[in-house]
Amino acid sequence: MASLRPDQVRRIALAAQGFDRPRPGGRVDVRHVRGVVRRLDLVQIDAVQTVERAQYLPLFSRLGPYPTAMLDDAAYRRRELFEAWAHEASLVAIDRWPALSHRRAHWSGRRAARLEAERPGYIASVRDEVAARGPLAVRDLTDPGERSGPWWGWSPGKAALEALFAWGEVAIADRRGQTRRYDLTERVIPAAVLNRPTPDREAAYRELLLVAADALGVATAGDLIDYHRLHGPTARPIVARLADEGLLAPVEVHGWDRSAYRAPGARTPRRVAAAALLTPFDPLVWDRARTERVFGFRYRLEFYVPAGQRRYGYFVMPFLLGDELVARVDVKADRRAGLLRVPGVFLEASAIAGQVAGPLATELCTLAAWLGLDGVAVSADCALGDALRRTLLPATSRERRR
After folding, report:
1. Lowest-confidence region among 65-74, 144-153, 358-367
2. Which of 31, 70, 136, 174 is the 20 to 30 A CA-CA neighbour of 247?
3. What is the structure's pLDDT at 396?
């Protein structure tokens, strides 16, 4: 069995995620977007918009500034991706539609069952209305009903449409901002994809586990299972069979207390020269246990932690420099003031502020410009915050002289 050092695992994982190559030197085009999607297979969608919508940020981290409409076009015009429950709500490569059929076939929702008991025939009537008038948002329904609670409380119309979506009877035609518009699946998913054979659960899991292995490079069985949120007891024996067949290569990783597998095609670059801020929903860091195992970086979300109890901040983005996560950056896009605000930065113990400040300042300025903001305002009171302000000041002065 091959043995890997932690630094090798970091570089393999980063190469699998596309961080081993420089960002495009010129204009980002459709080929670049397709390349990222091909590597990741999916990007997570989330309602948090402290900096930008979650699905757009992984592409920025790998490509730098790009028109977000390119991702929207890929998903909602060219149909190269589709919305699905995969790793949470996600945009997924269109080739994965057949493999995710098992999830649609086995989904059963308590909310839908309760709705059907309370309003027999309502879900079917919503489907009929979509068929006749779609694509429709919840508010477009003739009888959407009222929300049952605060912003996360679903109305009957929302519950019905989401049940139909989970079953695969409707799909997401497009979005207007955060608002989904639903239409019949056969009017959204290309016929050539719908007509492909539906794999059984074993074949579907094999496909998804191998896709995850390619996206992760080196992974435990749990890492592979988590990528598309598969059923663990079903998936683990399949991981073992894939290894027995030579489709996954068992490896021993120094410091890991569990078995690991390497994708046969995974590369080990001699060095990685990345510099990127990462959304909490980036596939590189969304599995917190894996992030700690691969990078020695303990990372937790503090969205729902009371402000006074937060250790790092509301929206904290890890900063990748080379092949290490060297800092945490609390970031907020203040669009009214035209500023990217940085109320907190936290240097990892192994990193040096003077070596991190320059690349981080460049990345913050790049992010601010991509967001259409005028500048970066660092209020963090620490050595790295001071170094950032000193680094940013000359750039600010140059902008004022223009």
Report:
1. 144-153
2. 31
3. 52
